[in-house]
What we know:
Shape of chain C: elongated
CATH architecture of the domain at 2-57 and 89-124 in chain B: Orthogonal Bundle
Shape of chain B: elongated
Helix content of chain C: over 70%
Largest sheet of chain B: none
Strand content of chain C: under 5%
Number of helices of chain B: 6
Number of helices of chain C: 5
CATH class of the domain at 2-57 and 89-124 in chain B: Mainly Alpha
Strand content of chain B: under 5%
Distance between the termini of chain B: 69 Å
Number of strands of chain C: 0
Number of domains of chain C: 1
Order of helices and strands of chain B: HHHHHH
Radius of gyration of chain B: 26 Å
Oligomer: heterotrimer
Structural class of chain C: mainly alpha
Structural class of chain B: mainly alpha
CATH topology of the domain at 2-57 and 89-124 in chain B: Helix Hairpins
Amino acid sequence: MANIAHVAEHTARDLIDHLPLLQVLVPFCTAPVIVLFGSRRFAWPLAFISSVISLVISVMLMMIVREGGYISYTLGGWAPPLGIEYRIDATNAFVLMLISTIGTLVLPFAYTSIKNEIRNRDHTLLYACWMLCFTGLLGMVATGDAFNVFVFLEISSLSTYVLVAQGASKDRRALTAAYDYLIMGTIGATFFVIGLGMLYMATGTLNLADLADRIANQGANRTVRSGFAFVIVGMGLKVAMFPLHLWLPKAYTFAPSAVTVFLSATATKAALYVVMRFVFSVYNPDFSFAKNTLEIIFLPLAIIAMFSASFVAVFQVNMKKMLAYSSIAQVGYMLLGIAILNEAGLTASLLHMFNHGFAKALLFMGAGAVLVKTGVI
Amino acid sequence: MGKFFELQFLTGHIHYLLFIVLMMTGLFIVVDKTNLVKKIIGLNIFQVSVFMFYVSIGKVTDGTAPIFPMDSNYHVDQAAMQTILYSNPLPHVLILTAIVVGIATTSLGLALIVRIRESFNTIDEEDILQIEQKMTRDDNQKYKYLLRDML
Amino acid sequence: MIFHHLILRVVTKLLVGTIILFALYVQFHGDFSPGGGFQAGVIMAVAFILYGIVFSLEAAKKVFPEWLVHKLSALGVLIYAGTGIVTMILGYDFLDYDAFSPLHPTHGQHWGLLIIEFGVGVTVTGVMVAIYYAFAGRPPCISDEEW
């Protein structure tokens, strides 16, 4: 009897309902398909087609949530606080659109650049890694479950280490750059997990919306506060927040140009979105500790980053290294927007995310084009 | 602060204290050692400390493994289920994912070390740093000449 | 080519089959007892790795060639994701196994889990063997003094 009631409850889903998931699923499925085909000729077209599809999906999502409100998608039919939920709202959809646009625009450039810089036999697996990285970044932004953020973060990070190390065919320093990034990135991600563990201890939930409710109800205690510290430090490593930025210049300089373009425009943005999500929706800025952290730590560090990283950038002779240092300074601008703690600041921060994503992608593409033509930058 | 030194407090929080000791051991090895392989081992210890932290927070006093009791026909034994207290399985499941991520990180790190050894002929960080500084100096020299030629 | 001791070779030949059988047990009995794709995949990979250690890497590569390892690790992911896509086509959420048997959701859950755990097992086997091949395939280049 109960079974029949279950059937009656169920309403069939159509394609529009599945959009939040398809956004992540399409690039995710492309990676194994590329490996299964195993042919260099199919790798790039498959990657490009799936990027275009995810761009179309992100635009459709943006149209749906533009007027406010959110879409919630549950995985496996488990209701949100227990099951994994994908939650798309206007901020989300905006960052998704940024990432998938950049992913689509970079690929035509990557075709020539990668052919020029990397051995032919590595192309297939490189595009598979590229799609996994793309999946991870999209997933980090789309998901509404805190632990899922970690899983997607690691998917994107692990494939990023591989992508950075591919620069070794040009310059062997890419290997140590990837190694440094691996050590720092793993420490950052593990800090993030410790933070989530503390939040789970204090609240008993991992759903971001539910976490926000429960933290607001029970107020702050020491576990919640140390969880905040761990989450911010862990994500700060991924964002390249000023004193935690040491992996960035080397990784961006020695990675293949196409990879640098893709990473500089998307990787730090996705991590920054997670910081925003934790600062503004999980922890309310009304809490004194969140406010103090932003005012006492974020604000000065952001300003130091703006000046010192730009200053260092001026004296670089390597074009890619110069742009990499400039990226750290730009991250400082975005963090400053968050640290000001009002609507205008947040809007400015989001706008600069978009701005810097496109501008830095174009600048790195210019550097890559010079590299293709002349062999040196 | 006095509460911290009471025996009962210490024994009650022993798993947190051990977690912190293990975590700091791992982080110290990552920071201190110059051998790249030892750094990876330190990273592993650091990650394992987090796994143990998660497993310890899932423990319920007197709880057993969260597996349904079965009767002889492989059906869930409803009567036995009422009396059993389970530990919280969710942190264990979460950490299963993190363990897999840890394996992937370790193998990728070791693979990078193999490649580094092949191209730099050393796995000591200090030596690699010297080689890289020399490479950077050579690069800068090259750029200077290029710039002069252009002007 | 170096051959290991006769006893090692004989015992390995006996063990490999047993290990694979145990892996399949852990894989498909995972519903009722502790186990599942991750553990089964690792145990399955151990069989091939043991064979590779005792009978040289080339022999292992003859049994389980490198291209097959890569394809298998991709195939497992596709089995997992494909299960989700099938449930989506049937009009349910991604990975909502009720779709396989709407009248008896419990059976649907069983079947769905068996399929995705099979996918996980295939991937883990592939990845573990791939890691072993990647490391064992490199010529030994670190001398004992450097440790």
